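Why run this: before we spend reagent on co-expression, it is cheaper to look at a predicted model of the complex and decide which construct boundaries make sense. The entries below are exactly what would go into the expression plan.
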Amino acid sequence: LREIAAILEGFERRDPAALARAISLVENQRAGFEQLLARVLAAPGRIETPARRTGLTGPPGAGKSTLTERLIRHFRERGESVGVIAVDPTSPFTGGALLGDRIRMESPEVDSGVFIRSMATRGAHGGLAVTTEEVARLLEAFGFGQVLIETVGVGQTELDVAGAADTTVLVLVPESGDAVQTLKAGVMEIADIYVLNKSDRPGADKLGHEIEIMVSMRRGSRSGAWEPPVVKTVATTGDGIGELTAALERHRTYLEHSGVLQARRRQRVEMLTRAVITRTLKRWVWEAARVDEVLAERLDDVLDGRQSPYELAQAVIEQVKSGALE
Amino acid sequence: LREIAAILEGFERRDPAALARAISLVENQRAGFEQLLARVLAAPGRIETPARRTGLTGPPGAGKSTLTERLIRHFRERGESVGVIAVDPTSPFTGGALLGDRIRMESPEVDSGVFIRSMATRGAHGGLAVTTEEVARLLEAFGFGQVLIETVGVGQTELDVAGAADTTVLVLVPESGDAVQTLKAGVMEIADIYVLNKSDRPGADKLGHEIEIMVSMRRGSRSGAWEPPVVKTVATTGDGIGELTAALERHRTYLEHSGVLQARRRQRVEMLTRAVITRTLKRWVWEAARVDEVLAERLDDVLDGRQSPYELAQAVIEQVKSGALE
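The model came back. Tokens follow.
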């Protein structure tokens, strides 16, 4: 396809417009998106050094966007390029400005070392983990040294998205205190680093202490395991950002020396490959095979109660397996 | 399976414990859940009269639970039995008591004509629409005349869940005013009835008027089409509940006379059958075929960059199609 060739050529020139088009193609799963990914990821020597991937998650209003801005500045000062994916699963009901838009507004100067992309979850419904992973790979392939993945913690999303990061930062605020007591198993456990933002507000010390107790209880006596630190920040003033970036460095060193980084990367590749197999399979059945025709013919049987959807599904699968539908 | 036989026998006796077990089986997709559904739905004459299904959705704090309680009381006074599914997709971050639990707490007397079930979306991830539909069918098969489906409007969920209802009620409050301006296409459009709850608060008239303008703009000049009414309620006092139940009756009459009810039911059966086909297919590949083995063997190629996940997926699909993996 001509569009894919143009994008690949744009990647060579490090043209952000090509990256933006590639992400749109992947996010909307438009024709050829998997060929593009296969080509981009396979280009020789493309991903010699995978990006360092940091995820930031937490409740709405915890200050994740401001923290992300601080981290971008920090990495830029060190000469590193930063790609940001802001995943916003919240409905219009709960509001919340698009994080990427906000950051762009506040930093009007063009900096080719920073690329920020907001991703709504609507289009990626049911496949958010996969799409996030694929977009992160595009950012890596484009050459960003740091990839930040910011997401609002709602429902399953933060767990899905955390899978795409090497290091997950859970951002809480003193007001989260009571919520922490009832956090579902799984949410607290994804954190490699806890950030207690807006820590100049009342209740910060108490919540910090509670998290530390929770972490030490969970850790038990496993020696050598990573002990998630609790870092207090005030993102608006920059207080504590140095401690946060130091904690990110320490976690990086831990990941590399413990073999955990390699294990996480392997898990990600396996998740991605499994998802691609399932996706390809669905496409094969619903697009290539004549399942739609069979369904249209026999749907009345289900409507009239002569057959259950489960029996019809089984019959269709048998036909798919026998090759009768191709 | 013995468990399925016991559940079917419990359905005959209208034993709520059997219904609860059936829902758990379906929600967690435990072994045999599709056989159970096929058996329950196929029992002769089982669903002669499908339940009237009403969905309630809206932002957190709009008073959906209190409205649901009011509707339950209304239906019970008319001698109808009511099954309630409360779908709660919100994360622990945003809080929110389990709606079903709350209602149970406030109505401690046992009423065999009411069954309330909370469903977290965690287990049903990616398949919430299907699971909601399947649980609604269980409630129908059990014999409830009214099925209420209550969900918090977050992200995609309210759209998924609305699909399972005949009539969708969108519950807003005066504070939703600004949010309504920016509501995504699709969210406002699912409403057959708008409820403006807490309408004794400032801003109710203004918001009600805005919604009416929006509805009339959307409707255009299609004659005979349903014009979604705006009903003002104060659920805590019961004000406006009579108007709401009257609007539900009017919409029912419209659904039946216009053919829309039949069309919605057909859509639901088609959605369910398609989803069951996809689910069966996935199970076939991931459980029956030897895809796991192939994946384990070749994952290192992907990790080392000798092959992309997309090429590996294609190769696996080819093997599945050729029958080489069975």
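The radius of gyration of chain B is 22 Å. Confidence is low (pLDDT under 50) at residues 91-106 of chain B. Bring this page to Monday's planning discussion.
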